[in-house]
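User: Can you help me understand a structure? I only have the sequence.
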Amino acid sequence: MFFVLAKLLHKKTILHFHPSNEKFLYEPNNQKLYRNLFSKANLVLVLSEQWRRWIKDALGLTEHIEVLYNPCPIVERKPELKQNEILFAGTVIPRKGYAVLIRSFAKIAKKHLDRKVVIAGNGEIDKAKAVAKECGIEDQVVFLGWVNGHAKDLTFQRASIYCLASDGEGFPMGVLDAWAYGIPCVVTPVGGLPDIVVDGENALVFPVGDVDVLARQLERMISNNGLRNRIAQASLELAHTTFNIDCINKNLEVIYDRFK
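Assistant: Let's start by predicting it. Here is the structure, written out as tokens:
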């Protein structure tokens, strides 16, 4: 309704497309809605080149679509706070893959009794606790609930590994947060991540839902200090360059200038 009102008032319109899964684009009812909105907007901003490709494939649209990344936050890193914690941050729902992470860690947990998985987020907490208990690692899985402000900062400061196990994302904010804190990430190749992530260079990658491969990638990240440090440094480089807010603001200015 706001889009229609803006067009009636002869205003230029910019749509920022921030979906959780590309499957939305391929649903018939959504295709009609998105094609109508996107074709009439002056500008559509998407989160990565991959999303631009999906829009072309699903809707047949290529014009007035520009890529603008979300930025990493600016944080003060405190490496002295690091703990042996693998962080999951996000809503605790099946799509986010919390059970995959817990089951994967369970395969290596006895080798790493000093390690814990920390779940930061609200949602299916009781179900997630049941998975941890079923796997026999309830003492190595910590549930913080929803965190923000100082509690969120401390949670990321303490993490030594970040895990994204989702089956779909736009461009995951948790990974952007992790890069800002220099936390090496183990991720699924979802949303816009494949445009940026190179397995073994700036992250470790595993297929969606693959418990065994995730367990192996977590083992690599835990056991190989050199690998972990290299990926942590690459994460900081991304946060300070491609995903730096000043860089993204300049990109937005260039886009706006083209669509005046």
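Now, to help you interpret it: The CA atoms of residues 26 and 58 lie 6 Å apart. The longest strand covers residues 159-164. Let me know which part you'd like to focus on.
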